[in-house]
Structures are given as C-alpha cells and as structure tokens.
Batch of 4 targets.
Target 1
Amino acid sequence: MKKTILFSLASAVTATAMAMGPMPKDSLSATELGTVTVYATRTIVPLKKIPSKVEVFQGKILERSGSLNLGELLKTHSSVDIVQYPGFLSTIGMRGLKPNGGYVTLLTNGIPTGTDNVSTLGISDIEQVEVLKGPFSAIYGTGAMGGVVNLITRKSKEQLTGGVSFNYGSYSTARASAVLGGGIVGGLSFDAGFSYNAQGKDYLSGHNSLLSKSKLEETILDPKTKGVEKRGSLYKSMMGRLRLGYDFSPEWSLNLYNSFFSANNTPVGGHNWNTAELTGKDLNRYSTSVEVLGSLGRHALQFTPYYNVEHASYFNKYNSSDAIATYKSSLRTLGFLLQDNINFAGHKFTVGLDGQRLDKENSSFDKITGKPKKPSQPAYGTRSMGAFAQSNLSFFEERLNVSLGARLDYINFLLEADPLLKNEAKKETYLNVTPNLGVKYEVIPGLLLHASAGGGFLSPDAYKKSGEYEDAYGKTRGNPKLKPERSFTIDGGVGYYNRDLGLSFDASYFNTNIRDLIYNVTAEDNVKTFANGDKARLSGLEFLLSYDFGSLVDYSFSLRTYLNATLMLDSKMYERKKDKWDQMLLVRKQNITFGADFTYRAFELGLKGRYAGPSIDTNWNTMDWNTKTPIRPELPDLLKAEHPEIAANNQILNPRFMTIDASAHYSFLKGFRVSIYLNNLFDEHYFEKDGYNMPGRNFLTSISYRF
C-alpha cells in the first residue's frame, strides 16, 4: 500500500521553479525571468541576464514552507548537502564540496552574516532567498568556492504592513512571530521582525522506510533506534531584526540594520546510543550594519560598514545550576563594502572595495574546577582587503548577455601569543587574483543557452599558516608556505521558460578541479603541521523542472509540479599520504527535492519530497565507552564484505532516504490564514549525520494574520 501511495505521489510530481512568487506567478516563466532581480551578483540585474546557476525563493514558497530556519528551507527546496545536528548546528555544501560551511558564503543584503551555521538564520521576515551555485570568489573572495546564499530583508517605505503568526505542534512545539514595517513620517521608515521558537519535549525518530534497505543499511540505521525518544532534542530560541531608514531625497538614503539570534541552555550530545551525558550550550549572535545609498547620474553608490559577533559557551552539565563552562569561543567580523554600480548604454559595470577584520578566540576550562587550561587552538585572525570589478554586458536587444570580472585579494594572517600554548605571535601575508566569465544567449524567445567559467579559493586559517603551539595532544606548527585551496569550474546548459505553456526547464553540467587541498602531516620532529598537495575532481548534472497544469485553463487555478536535482557523476579527492583517490566525505550521490502545489482561490495544498542518495563519512560511532561494548557489533563484518575500502578507511556508508511532507492552507476574511503541516508523512527513519536521527512523523498547526 505504501509503495502504491508513493508511486501515485511521484507520478504527480515532476518539476521546480527557479523563481517563485504568489499565484499565478509561482512558476518560473520567460516573463518572470526579466522581472526577478538578483542582488547577490553585485551588478543587480534581472535573473534572465545571469549566466550562472541561480535559484530565487520568495513569496508563497517562503510563506508556506513551514521552515524554522534557512537550513530547513534549503534542504527541502534546493538540492544541497547538509550536515545537521539537533541543537542549532547545521552547515551546507554545494556541487560536491564538503558541507562543513567553509565553501559557501552566507550573506544578508549582500553583507557577510558572520556565521556558517544556517540554523541560526531565520526566514520569517525574509523577502527573498538567493542561492548561487558555483564559484563566486571573483566577487566575494575566500569561502565562496562552492556558492553563495543571500537573504534579502524587507524594506517597507509606504503604508504600514505587517502580521503575526502562532504555531503549535508535536512535542509541545510552540512558535510565535511578528513583522511590522512602513513609513513613519517624511522620509523615515522602519521594519521590525521577531520570532520565538520552542520545542518542549524530545522528539521521536521514525519507524519506517519508503525505500527498500539492504541489511547493511538497516544495520547502520540500527533497528533499536526506530521510534525512540531523541534525548537532548528540545530547544528554545529567539530571533529578531530591525531596520531604521531615512530617505534624504529620491537619490540618497540611509538604512541601519540590526539582528540577533539567541539559544541558551540548549542540550548537546543527545547521541542515538546515549554513550555520554548531556551537556549544555549557549549560542548567541548579533549583527549590525549601516547602508548608505546614493545616485549621481549613471552611478549608484553604496557604502556599508558592518559588525558581527557570535559567542558560544559549552557547559559540563545541561540545565544545571552548578554547571561549569568548559569551552568558550567568539568570532568577530568587522568590515565594509564600498561599490559603484555604473549603468552605461544598457551595460552594467560594478567596481568596488571590501575589507574585513576577522578574529577568532577560544578558551578551555577544567570541567571540575573551572580553571583555565590549554585551549584547543591559539587565538587567530585575518585582515583582508579585496578590489573587484564586475560587468554585465548586453547585446542584440538583450538576447546576448556576457558577465566578466575579476577580484584581487590581499590577506594578512595573524596568530596571537598564548602563554598556555607557549606560542609566539606570528603573521603571514598572501595575494590572490580570481577571474570569472559567463555567457547567456536567448536563441528564440524563452530558449536560453548558458555557460560560465571561474575560479574559487579558500584561504587557510591563520594557525595553519603561521606560528607554533603545544596543546594536550602535542605540538602543532604552521606552514608559512601554505597556499589557499584553489578551484576552477566550468559549467554550461540549456533552459526553456514559457508561462503560457506553464513550463520551466533548465539542465546544466558542471566540472570542478581543485588543487592545493590542505591536509595534516607529521614533520620529522614529530610535530603536526599542514601542507598542500591533495586535489579533488567534482562533476555532476543539475536539473530544474516545473510545469503548471493551470496553464491549460488560463490559470483559473494553479497546480504546479516541480523538481530540483543535483546528480554527482564524480566526487573524489586524491590524498597524497595514501597515494589514491577516495570519495569526498558527506557528499550525497544524489540530492533531489520535488513537490506539487495546488492553489484555487482561498485554498492551497502542498506536497514536497526529498530524496538523498548515499554518502561516505568517518565512522565515529564504534564503541560505547560507558559499558565498553561495541555499537552495532555486526557492522564491521558487513562493511568488510560489501565495501572493503570503506571499512579499511574506518568509514561508514550513510544510507539513502526519502521524506514526504504535506500541508494545507486556507485564507479567510481579510488577512487571516490557517495552515496545517504534516512533516515526514510516512515516518521515515533517517539521519543527516550518523548517530543523530531526525524527527519521525509530526505535525504543526498555524494561524496568522497579515495586513
């Protein structure tokens, strides 16, 4: 029966929109390609003119997603890799790059968020989410080797608008949010948003599997963890944003942005097999920026200084009055963006400078006495300056669009002295140039060919490049000759968009070669250090499909089916010390999201699914150190028999899974709306990270009012 239901659902679900909005513009069309504006490219041009792979989510998609944060939105709507733990810790990867957060740049209004943790970025007051896949280091510098995610916040300047929402669901889940914004007096305006989210009880893992599982996959998932309480999965958090703006004239304006995230007394360590006691965590993040915008003839000027700080504290006990902090860290980023957008004869040029000061500090304390002890790393930082130039050139009545640009980065690495680690202060410098090129051509109305090529790089942390220190595990020495990891990507494809036919389609191929991957080595004097030498090759296919059956009846209703898929053809890394090619860790062979949305007047129904293919990870979960007994005792022999190389590397095969979510919505009176979400409808037993099962079947109800 389950397979019959699944087949019926899968038959109805065949496609995705790259840009989505209110009915009848939920699906991407040739018309909408020209009206959806993308800001993350810094040239600020319509989606239709961008050769790179870009997905834009807005309007109805954000409203009815039911997602708590950016991580949940991306994993159910965009084909990305994700590593997710309970307790607000999630990082993503794109196009085969490891999802450790280091290869994707996260932005808000084009400014760095100061975090790589997508669980701390709420979307309840977000107007648009832009996902750019591929290397964008030519625009944003280090860390954008895999892609960019940009959040666009509300900017209300006219009549006062806003809304409130209240949710309640499984495991005593309660959510409340409010947004308000508009003009105050004269040129003064504001936007404010706040949300409170809590889960009062630990969730239960799933019981079932929509896909047939081998004995090996069943053993890895461990039948003993089906339908059990996930210890340490409850939470409380608050998020908020505020914008104050003033328009001095139609040409000049100023905006002050502030945002925060707070999740204190959060449990940590709720492992499937309960091999350790729960500990606690406080996580807090704050961001502020000032945006000055002005126009002078053909020039659109912007100057934005910003400051971000993220604090994390870990405690030896959870929810205890005598808990002792065992580890504290802080990440501070202070920077600015100065740019000029020039519009000339239908072409756009952007030139600019950006700079950033990054400081990372950490402290460790004895879990019994609370006295300071050797930290895991010395405090370090970077001082970087980048100069960039980008262009978007249009020819033949905008049928041919060419993007061309380059960036120069100067990076200064700083390592601070630490008496506990016995290291001296050191510094090193590095210079890097990154180019990019893209072409998009409209052969006939709606039929587009596109191709792009560009470089990416990821600079090493300062402690890997300079200095020497000694921690509890021995000496570590930086390598002043260490180079950044570098990549070169080519991609190309074809797309077709026609709103009258209700059809949206894009297919792309990408190929990435990475050199100078950084790996750990042991020097002749038995000191741990770092070197370049490893390399990687990544290639795959990306598909975006969408078809709206409402086009057959002139959109008197909308029934939009969609699919977003990344299929990896190759994702291997050459490890110099092993002299062989191995699979990249935590990269799924396939990432596919799909669904169907029905809208008729005040009624909306949604069905969305996600298929995640297998991936490889290090097998950290081998022994219960409390009882001195092995976890999953049958697993080693099964792995050796079916995947001897994986077993030899002390790795594990993360099983495939498929989840299905459903939702229903009804709008009534003027501005009221009720919704119900049925998540993990078939109670899938799965995990994003081995040892941390995700919730089984659960529900969430919502009532909201907007004006």
Target 2
Amino acid sequence: MSLSESAKAIADKHRNELGFVLKPALLASEQANELEAVFLDDKKAIGFCHFHHCKNKAKRGQTTIYSLAV
C-alpha cells in the first residue's frame, strides 16, 4: 500500500473531523514530499500529516498543515 493510499484510509476513518480528503491531492503531495506518515512495525500506517511548505520569501517559509490524523 502506498503512502497516499495509507493516508486516505486513515482520513476516511476520520471523515467527521477532517471532511472529505481527496485521493489525488494526497497523491500529488506524496510526489512533492509533502505527505508524511507514521507506521507501526513498517507495515500499518497509524497516522499521517498532509502539508505544504511555502518557499516564497514573502511568506518566510510558512508551512500549512492541511490534515493531520492519528
């Protein structure tokens, strides 16, 4: 199971808290290295963070967290 698929499974379990998280958005973030997950025994994802780190000088390296669930 890929990182984005693992994150989507967790997001679906927390739909009331997160709303609907789009799989293409998670996939794009995975490709941009803006999706992290915590795995239990390198097999099962138990949490994820979907974020964007802005490199724009005007925003001074601001990081925005879109969704976070454990």
Target 3
Amino acid sequence: MGLNKCRIHLDGASYHFHKTAAKPAGNANLSDLREWAKRPDVKAWLDEKGYSIPDNPRKKDIEPHVKAYVRDMTWTIYAIAKQYGGHIIRKTPPYHCELQPIEKIWACVKNKVASLTD
C-alpha cells in the first residue's frame, strides 16, 4: 500500500533543491566546455536529442548545446517525486509563517531567548 499523487509542500531552502546535473559556468573557457561535452551523462543527452559536437569544437559550437542542456535540466526533487508515484512538489514563499509553521515556532524561540537575556 503506497501513497499516490501526494502533494509535498517545501519551503524554498536551497538544500531541498539541487539540479540533476552540473552545468559549466557562464564564463567557462573552451577547455572546460570540451570536458563538459565529454561527460557520459552529457553525451547520452546529446545522443538522445540528436545533437552532435564536432571533434575539435570551438566555443560557439558548444554554447548552444549548453543552453539547451540547462533548459532541459530539472531539479532532483522533482525527478524523485515523479519516479516514485508522480507526487506533486510545491514551493512555499520564504518567510511566511502562515504557510510555514516552523517560521512561527522559530519566532517564538527567538522571543523566549531574547526575554531571558534582557
């Protein structure tokens, strides 16, 4: 008996959300881009999309593929949710205690500590 199509509400904390794969930096040099293009996951993605990169590529040959790769990248949490039953992930806005009970608890703790140190 598993759970199907659960709605999972997470705050926007960065530790909840990671990209499925690393991308080269925006200012990456040609050698970094060539190394990126040789990675097995990138090669598989290029093959799947029908893209090809020349044997001795220039930066302008690789950059469009990097942009397309970044557009196709997804957050790991969404991939996991989809893999295990198509769950729905929702992000709540930051610092809204009405939507994030931990914010209200944290405010109470901070007030209590402040009252003890006065």
Target 4
Amino acid sequence: RAERSAASLAVRVGSLDDPPERPGLTHFLEHMLFLGTEKYPKPNGYTSYLSSHAGGSNAYTADDHTNYFFSVAHDGFPEALDR
C-alpha cells in the first residue's frame, strides 16, 4: 500500500494568453485558486488540509500552460483531490 499519493493538473493557458491590457493575469489567477472554492470556501483551507495530512502543493505558470500539483499522505488523497 502506498504511503503517499500525488496529482498534477496542467491547464493549457499560460502567460502568452494574457490580454495585452492585463499582463500577469494568468499568474494572478494561479494564486487565486488557492483562496477557496464554492464547495470549500475557507481561505487557505486547501493548504491547511494538505498540511494536516503531511502534504503540500505548488503551482507554476509557463508561457503556454499552468500546472498545479500536490502530494499528501495516501489516506488524505481522495479529499485532497476533491478540494
């Protein structure tokens, strides 16, 4: 049985997709995703959940895509994926 699980999601939108009048928009939205969702509205709830299950996350914005990834103790994976 695995002790840790991880997931990564790449979205085909990067900094080259920023509108000329909004440079940095893609990178800004990358950070906004960690502030909560409709289902899990508590700001930083995702980070807190991962931390309480020996995990962590990160993301980056490239020219042509944005990538989000996390790792977590295996027993916390299903809820981490839902969040």
